[in-house]
Amino acid sequence: MSIQVEGTIERKGFGTGTWALVSSSETYELHKAPADLQKAGIKVKISGQIREDVMTIAMIGPVLEVASFELVD
Predict the structure, then answer these.
(1) In this model, does residue 1 exceed pLDDT 90?
(2) Nearest Cα to Cα of residue 21 among 46, 1, 48
(3) Three-class SS of residue 17?
(4) C-alpha 42, offset from chain centre
(5) Rounded to the nearest 5°, which phi and psi values hold at 21?
(6) Distances in Å between the alpha carbon of 41 and those of 8, 33, 70, 73?
(7) Which domains does the chain have, with CATH numbers?
(8) What integer pLDDT is reported at residue 62 of this predicted model?
């Protein structure tokens, strides 16, 4: 399922650690987060695909594969 969501990037310390997008209604675990998104505290709008075929150790929310993103104020 393709989605577009806006939120803040956070580093979650589960297992070896993972990058997450925290929106007002959901936390998404970023699948293979691009290097430019690996910065805690930045606000972004991400377009991507929910990967229901991917399981993770952190299991903090739906797994989101990033197709594109932009920084927001």
Answers:
(1) no
(2) 46
(3) coil
(4) 12
(5) -110, 120
(6) 6, 15, 14, 12
(7) 2-71 (2.40.50.430)
(8) 96
Q: What is the pLDDT of residue 59?
A: 87
Gap between the terminal Cα atoms of the chain: 27
Within 10 angstroms of residue 34's Cβ, the number of other Cβ atoms is 11
User: What's the pLDDT tens digit per position in 4-38?
Assistant: 999 999 999 877 789 999 999 999 999 999 999 99
8 Å CB contact between 7 and 48: no
The first and second tokens of residue 41, run together, are 């505290």
35: Cβ–Cβ under 8 A, 6 or more apart, which residues? Answer: none
CA distance 66 to 49: 7
pTM of the model: 0.91
